[in-house]
Predict the structure of Anoctamin.
Amino acid sequence: MEESSAEPPDSSGTQSNVPHLAVKDVSLMLESQKTEDSSSSVSRAEDDSTLLNAAPHRSTTEDNSKSDSSNAEGKSKSSGLCFTDGKRRIDYILVYRKSSTQIEKREMFERNIRAEGLHMEKEASLTNSDVIFLKLHAPWDVLCRYAELMNIRMPFRRKIFYKHRRHKFMSRMEKRINKFRGFLPRKPMKFTASLPDLEEGESFTAPFSRSRIHHFIIHNKETFFNNATRSRIVHHILQRVKYEEGKNKMGLNRLLNNNSYEAAFPLHEGSYHSKNPVRTHGAENHRHLLYECWAWWGVWYKYQPLDLIRKYFGEKIGLYFAWLGWYTGMLFPAALVGLLVFLYGLFTLEHCQVSKEICEATDIAMCPICDQYCPYLRLSDSCIYAKVTHLFDNGATVFFAVFMAVWATVFLEFWKRRRAVLAYDWDLVDWEEEEEEIRPQFEAKYSKKERMNPISGKPEPYQAFTDKYSRLVVSASGIFFMILVVIAAVFGIVIYRVITVSTFAAFGWALIRNNSQVATTGTAVCINFCVIMLLNVLYEKVALLLTNLEQPRTESEWENSFTLKMFLFQFVNLNSSTFYIAFFLGRFTGRPGAYLRLINRWKLEECHPSGCLIDLCLQMGIIMVLKQTWNNVIELGSPILQNWWTRRRLRKDHGLNAKSAFPQWERDFNLQPMNEYGLFDEYLEMILQFGFTTIFVAAFPLAPLLALLNNIIEIRLDAYKFVTQWRRPLPSQAKDIGIWYGILEGIGILAVITNAFVIAVTSDFIPRLVYAYKYGPCAGQGRAGEGCMMGYVNASLSIFRVSDFEGRSLPKTNGSELFGEAVEYCRYRDYREPPDSAEPYSYTLQFWHVLAARLAFIIVFEHMVFAIKTLIAYLIPDLPKDLRDRMRREKYLIQEMMYEAELERLQKEKNERRRRGKGQHKEWP
C-alpha cells in the first residue's frame, strides 16, 4: 500500500523520505560567498554506494565512505556496469545490428556523439554475432555542462531549520518500520540506514551552475550525479545529435524509427537477487533494495518507498505509483462503507417485508417472461432473487451513493494536495517542460510549409488551419463510427438475450429451465466480456490510425489525442451493456397482450419478477472480476513467459545461464521493453476501474472492495514487472498525472448523474417510498418503516386476463401443473388498471405519482450532491497549510541569505578600501 495513506495529506512530507526543499535559483544570491563559508556549514554525507553496500549499522566517516565506494566499484566492474577499464560507468546503451543498412547515418551520429564529449565503447553480443552494444559514458565536464543547460537542481547547502521536525518525523517512522520489519534486521536499527537517500533531503537545492560549483555539496564526482540523472543527461544529448546534414536530421528517436538502432536504454543497477541475506549484509544496489522492500510479494502490506522509486525510475513513474497508492489507500473507507451497506442488507434480510411477501406468495401466478415456451411462474419462486436484491437495494443505498460522490471529490482534492507536496519535495514546483521537438511524421508531411515559431524565433513546419480541422472532422467521424460499432455489439447481445431466454425456458435440464432468465443473463455477460476484449484490440488499431491521421505536432499532443480516443472507446465498450441493463432493460417492453417487439418478431426482454437490479449486479460483478483477473494474468504473464522463453533459448543455444553468466547490458537487452505507450496501459486500467467503482456503485456496493483487493495486487504486480521483467525505462520528469486528472473529474461528475438514475429508475427505492407515504398502512402519518410496507408487492403488480394474450404469446401450458387448475389471471410488474375497469390496462394514478417522485429525486439528488462536492472542493485548499508555511519560511530564509550576502559584500569592499587607504598612507612622502 502507498505510504501516504497512513497519514493526513497535509503532513510535512512523504513518509519514505525527508522532503527536498526547492529554491528558486538561490545560488545567484550566494555568488559572493566564500567557498570556506559554504563548505563549513554542511556535514559530510554518505554517497549511494556507501549506503547500499555497507552492513546495516554503518559509519558516516570519510574513510568508511571511501572504502565502501571502492567496494561498489569492484562490484560494478564484475557485474558489467562499467567500461572494460572498470572505472567509467555505463550511462546508456545503444544496440544495433551489423546487418542494418543505415550505416552512414549511424557512423555520423556516433562521430557527433564523440564531438559532444561522450565516451564510447563497442562490444559484440555473446549470443548473437550480428548484435553490437554501444556503451556510452558521460565524463564530469559533460555532465556539468548539460546539467547547467538543463537546469538540473542539485544540493548546495544543508538545512537546519527543519531539523527538529525531521527528528520527530524519523522517530515516528522508526517505530512504525520496526513494528513491521520485513527486509530490516531483527535488531531495531536506525531508519536512515535502510533507505539510501535520506541525506539528500537535508539540503537546499538549486539549478546547477559551473561558475558557482563551489557552493554545491560535492564529496565524490562519480556519485554527485546519480545514475538516473546521468542517464537523463545522456538521453538529452542523444536527442540533439545530428545523423545527417540538415536542420532537422537529428535525434535518437528518429534513428530508432528507421531501424538504425534496435534498442536504447539505461542499465539496471545490477541484479535484483543476492546470495547474501539482506537483513545481515544490506542491499547491494538500488534495484535489489527496491525488490526487497517494494516488488517482492511478501511485502504487500508495507508502504511504498516513493523517494527511492523516484530516484531509480524518475518522477513520472514515481508519480504514477504515488497516485496508485493514494487511490488504493482512499479505497479503504469506500470499501468499508460498501461492505457495511452489504452487511446491513444481510442483517435486515429477515425483517424485509417485501421479501417476506414475495416468498409467501405461493398463490400468485406471474405472466410468462417470453413467448410460448416460458411457463407461468409462482411469485414465490423469486424468493431467493428478492433476498439477493435486498442485499444491494436497501435503505442504505442512497446514503452510499451520496457517500461515493463525496468520496470521489475528496479523493481528487486531497490528491491535488498530495501531488503539491510531492512536487515540492521532488523539486518540481518550478520545473517546466522543455519545448518539445516536432514529431518526425509531422515534419515530413509539412516540411514545405514553414512559419516562424513565436517562442524560439526559428522557422518550423506549419499545418494550415483548413487541413488541421478537416483532419479533425474525419477523425471525429471515425470515433462516431466506432461508437456505432459498440452500439451494434450491444444490440447483438440484446438479440441473444431475447432469443436464448426462450431456448433456456424449453431446456431439458430442469435447473436451467427453472432459472432461464438468470442463465440468459450469465451467459450474455460472459459473451459480452469476450466481445469487449476483442473490440479492445480493434480499438487500439483504430485509435492509432485516427491519431496519426490528425498529424499532431508534438509527442505530447499525440499522446493526449491517443489517450482521449482510447479512453472513450474502451469506456463506451466496457459500460455500454451496463447502461443498457441499468436504464433500458424492461423499460420499453409494453405489457402482456401488447408487447413491443424487435423487428416485429421478438418480444423484448423483461426484468425478473424481483426487479432489474439483480441483472445489473450480475453484469457488474462478472465483468469487474473477469476483466481485472484477465488484465493481471496478461500483464504479468506475458513478460514472464517471454523472458522465460528467451532464457530457455539462450541456454539451449549457448549452454549458458542467461541470468548470471552474461554482463548487465546483455541481460537487460534480453528483458522486455516497456510498453510502447509508456504508462498509458497502467493508467487506463485504473481509470476504467475508477469508473466502474463510482458510476454504478449504488447498484453494486461491493465494487470498491473488489477494486481495493485488485489494487493491493496491482501495486506489487506493477512493481515486480518494473523491477524484474522490464528493461529500465528512461527516468523522466513530470509535475502531475497529466490528462488523466481531467478524465477523473469527468467520471466523478458522470457518477453523480448515473447513480441518481440508478436509484430512481433501476432500484425500487422510490416506488417503495411512495407506497409507504401515500398508499400503505402508514399513509398520511409521516413515517415509513417495514410495517408500513405491508401489501406493497400486491400494489406493485398489475392484473392481466389470460384470454387477452396474443396468439404468438400464449404459453403452451395453462399453469395447471403449478396451481392445480388453469390460470385465468396472471400478474406483471407495472401500475395499470385491471382488465374489468372502465379503461383497462391504462396507467393508474400511482404510476404518475411514482414517475413524479423519480424525477423529483433525480433533480434533488443531483443538486444536493453537486452542492456538497462544490463546497468540499472550496473548503479543501490545494496546498496544505504546513507546505505553505514551509514555502514562506524558505522565502524568509532566502531573504536572510540575500541580506547576509550583501552585508558580507559591503564589509569586504569596506575592508578593501581600508587596506588600500593604509597602503597609500605608507607611501606618502
Summary: The radius of gyration is 34 Å.
